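Lay summary. Proteins are chains of building blocks that fold into shapes, and those shapes determine what they do. In this project we predict the shape from the chain. Here is one chain we studied, written as its sequence of building blocks.
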Amino acid sequence: MSYLEAVVLGLVQGLTEFLPISSTAHLRIVPALLGWSDPGAAYSAVIQLGTVGAVLVYFAKDLVQLTKAFLKGLVEKKPFGTLDSRLAWFVGLGTIPIGVCGLLFKKTIETSLRSLYVISASLIVLALVLLLVERLAAHKRTLEEMTLKDGIIVGLWQAVALIPGSSRSGTTITGALSLGFTRADAARYSFLLSIPATTLAGVFELKHLLQATDGPGIDVMIIGTVVSFVSGLAAIWGLLQFLKNRSMLVFVVYRVVMGLALLGLLSAGRLEASPMKAPVAAPADAGIP
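And here is the predicted shape, written in a compact code that computers can read:
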């Protein structure tokens, strides 16, 4: 992987991770259009650490409050006593579904599900679901009204994002909107919920990439991660500002147009449905007693 590829992929990751348009889809499509090899699910997970850093920096004050409230709730034996302590628990419990499903279906997610046909279908189908929810949702509830049931339901929606093309932010925002939350609060909770899942996935894959015999170099991983961090900060700020007084319709249209264009390119033979390279090889000593 060249430095140019690392910069472009980092930029794509940062700008699309928090928008409901699927960073995974773009990290498959952009290299395919440019004639580059597929960076692989593992590399994508690692540079997500940059966007995790962006969330940590942007919501640093909120995260400190949530952590303090969580610990205080444990000490006082009132885990759901305050809004911040409740949100901390909801984020933790809401992460369980995607963690379990990610481990159970890891091989499928990294191979057959990365087909551009799967991605195009996910882009279109989830766009239509988002459109339906956007039209029918109440857009009235705030995070102060969130319950444990709400947190678990949104967590289940997040697990759907394991299907490439779905978009983690897209599925979680859709899930929160379906429960009646405002767009801004749905996005805010989506960002907070992303932290445990993307951090664990990135660290897990980083270990395997460093051990792999033919993985990308440390330098390109660092470049991609730094670029995704900077562009991720911009994307968070931009989306929160956008959703204060605008709907999700623009993202619905973008997803449908992109999905249809992708199907057209596949039908015309301009793109290959399968990745241009196999996933990163296992460590050299894998399987040796």
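What the prediction tells us: Residues 37 and 276 are 5 Å apart (CA to CA).
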